[in-house]
Write a structure and sequence with these properties.
The chain is mainly alpha-helical and 157 residues long. The chain has a two-stranded antiparallel ribbon. Strands 3-4 form a two-stranded antiparallel sheet. InterPro entries: CD1247_N.
Length: 157
């Protein structure tokens, strides 16, 4: 039994009670039944549109699968990502930093940390990173420190 059939059944039950139509309670009950009837038609219409849309999406999915097969061949395990990007991303190191002002946790790349500062996207507070105590008096490889902004001995050479 679908929604419209259930509402029709309830309407018939109420009509079978032979209630006095002039009473306010009966008027409210009839108004509720009319509302339910309208809602059931709306839901039925939405279900029909959903079924139609679902069928269209299935057709689009099938067309896309055919186009992918023509473009990329029969390889089911095709990786759509660029392999070079994957290798670069594996080398990226991220650190979790917490903003002192708002408590927002950020994942920051090593490159951003070495720049020395970043603005918190949540509150706008400037977060500064100072590595001078780590690099003081230590010599490091210029290739590793190039552009790091630290005062390491290798940058003086």
């Amino acid at each position: 039994m679908n929604l419209t059939e259930k509402i029709a059944y309830i309407r018939e039950l109420c009509e079978g009670l032979n209630l006095d139509e002039s009473k306010p309670e009966v008027k409210v009950m009839n108004a509720i039944i009319d509302l339910l009837d309208d809602m059931s038609y709306s839901v039925t219409d939405m279900e029909d549109l959903y079924d139609e849309l679902s069928a269209q999406v299935d057709e689009i999915d099938q067309d896309l699968a055919e186009a992918e097969t023509e473009l990329y061949g029969e390889d089911d395990d095709f990786d759509y990502d660029d392999d070079e990007d994957d290798e670069e991303n594996e080398d990226d190191v991220f650190y979790e930093v917490t903003c002192d002002s708002c408590g927002q946790k950020l994942n920051v790349s090593e490159d951003v940390l070495l720049e020395g500062e970043i603005e918190c996207p949540n509150c706008g507070e400037l977060l500064e990173f100072d590595f001078s105590d780590i690099f003081d008096g230590e010599e490091c490889d210029p290739a590793d420190c190039e552009g790091c902004g630290s005062n390491c001995n290798s940058s003086e050479e």
